[in-house]
Write a structure and sequence with these properties.
By secondary structure, the chain is of the alpha+beta class. The protein is built from two helices and nine strands.
């Protein structure tokens, strides 16, 4: 019994000599590689979510920038300025925290049915080109959108009735995770 205890004690004393500790430089390199792998994994998950949203026509483009047809841009609140698609119905809204508009949130909200929804995927960079028409009681709108695999999206909305054009820039999010507030439709 005494021999066993001495043997275990000797092994425990010599064990640290056989284990190699990582230097600070090696530890930093290992942390960097792990972080890079984690970021690649997150990017792949985002790309898959974007693909599902585009395929099933269920997304919300929460815009943080609006541009008019002359190129003038303004930073806006993403929860009031959005384009939403729920497979067969859609919403386009412009709003402001400073004013009270026809929709109750300082702007205009139109809601209607989606027709001629089409999308194509650029296999080289993974981005999507989306187009559809939104038919509402106050007119029709041509929506053209590009979405990158990380969820960044730009959309151009042209009124086929009024002839105006507005560009939305922001991020695509699933409807269940969206933070938008929809005003009263015209």
């Amino acid at each position: 019994m005494k021999r066993v205890i001495v043997f275990v004690f000797a092994v425990l004393l010599t064990l640290p000599a056989f284990t190699q500790e990582l230097s600070k430089k090696e530890q930093k390199q290992l942390d960097k590689e792990l972080k890079k792998e984690q970021q690649a994994e997150e990017a792949a998950q985002k790309a898959q979510i974007v693909e599902v949203m585009v395929h099933y026509q269920r997304f919300v483009l929460e815009a943080n920038t609006l541009r008019d047809k002359r190129g003038n841009s303004v930073q806006v609140s993403a929860n009031l300025n959005f384009i939403a698609s729920d497979s067969i119905t859609g919403v386009i809204q412009v709003g402001s925290n400073s004013y009270i508009g026809a929709n109750g949130v300082g702007g205009v909200t139109v809601e209607g049915s989606i027709s001629e929804y089409k999308y194509t995927k650029n296999e080289k960079n993974g981005s999507y080109s989306i187009s559809y028409y939104l038919r509402t009681p106050v007119g029709s709108y041509d929506v053209r959108m590009t979405a990158s695999p990380n969820g960044r999206a730009d959309a151009s909305v042209s009124s086929t009735t009024w002839g105006d054009k507005l560009n939305y820039s922001g991020f695509l999010v699933p409807p269940a995770m969206s933070r938008v507030y929809k005003g009263n439709s015209l």
